[in-house]
Structure formats: structure tokens, C-alpha cells
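job 3f2a | input accepted
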Amino acid sequence: MIQINIIPSLVINQNGLFAKDKSGKLVDICLHQGSLDGACSVYSVFMNLLILKVISYNDIKVYEKSNDPETRKLCKKLLEENGMHHNGQYLSTIRKILNESIGSQISAKNPRATQREVIPQIVDHLKRDYPVIISVGFRGGKDAHALLCVGYEGSDENPSKLFCLDPDTPKTFNNYWNTVIDLETNSNNRKYFSRYIPNELNTEYDVSLDDILLITPKE
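job 3f2a | predicted structure (219 res):
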């Protein structure tokens, strides 16, 4: 039997995929590029923080400002001072921005590990009901891309797929994910052993797991 594990914070209803934000309100969690200023990493960060109940949806709406000074600082750093992030953004830079702006509420870490070594860390974080931001690199020179991992297929010890919310892929209305990272596609390839498979798009790419960002809320 195929075992699928999804973080329990996510809820599907007739309108799509939702989670409760900081205000306790169920909000549409699939942020798609074009709805906010910024790049894929920025959207992945905001989806992550919404699921962790660190921010509310109103904090990131256009023309809205948060009442929380730390959240205002974060939005200024991610949406104003860095503009459109035309050249992307390293997760190490995002980690620094997070810790410097809302560090009293969360802890953000980039583990130093190989691609295969980060997989157990991803699973462990997901089992705690925490999403994981993943950066993948594409074979053939396509720019790196960030997405939010919300679940996995397989056992804890041997996951075969990672289920993700991708801000560059059409929103999902009947599923917990819109993109799959298949970890067993090219098992003999040392670097590009995984495959990026977006839903509803007739294209796939061999990818490497370049980096992950683990965000943990502080009590």
C-alpha cells in the first residue's frame, strides 16, 4: 500500500487548499507568482509562515500593512528593499532576512548537508507539521527554483516522492500539492537524481536538491 503523509495543517474544501493563519482564519494557501511582488522564494516563505500561523493573510495583501512591527520589517525587506528579486534569492539570504526581522517568533536554518542527507531532515520537519522550503537546480542551465514541501510518499526511512506547493505552477483545487519531486527517477546520477514534475503541465525536469530552509516557530 502506498503511504502518503501530508502536514495536518492543510485543509481541502470546495474552493481549494486552505490553512489557518495567525488570525485563526482559513485562508487560501496557494500563493501564485503574480499576486505579490517578488520571486518564488518569497512566495514560498509567505506560504510557510501562513501555515505556521506566524503571519496572517492580511499582512501580505497589497496596500495593507501589518500591525506587528517585526512582520512589517519582514515585508519591507522581502517586498520593497529587494524589489522584484529578478535574479532570484539564495535561501541563505532569506534565512538571514527572516532571523533579522522576525527572529523573536521563528528560527530559520540552512542545514549543511549533501542532497541525500537533507532528505531525512525534510521528513523529520514535515512530521512535526512544519513545511520545508526547497531549492532545486535544473539540469541544462535553467535557473534554480524554490517551492514549499508539504508532504511525502513512502516510509519515514525511505521516502520516494516529495509533495510541494509551487508558486510557478497553476493552483490546486482538489489536491494537497501541485508539484512532485520524484526522488527515485535517476538513482544512478550523483547530482540530478530527482525529477521535478508539475501538475497540469506537460513538462518534467531532472533536478538536484540544492538547498533547504527549515523554519520553526518559537513558543
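job 3f2a | Residues 41 and 94 are 8 Å apart (CA to CA).
job 3f2a | closed
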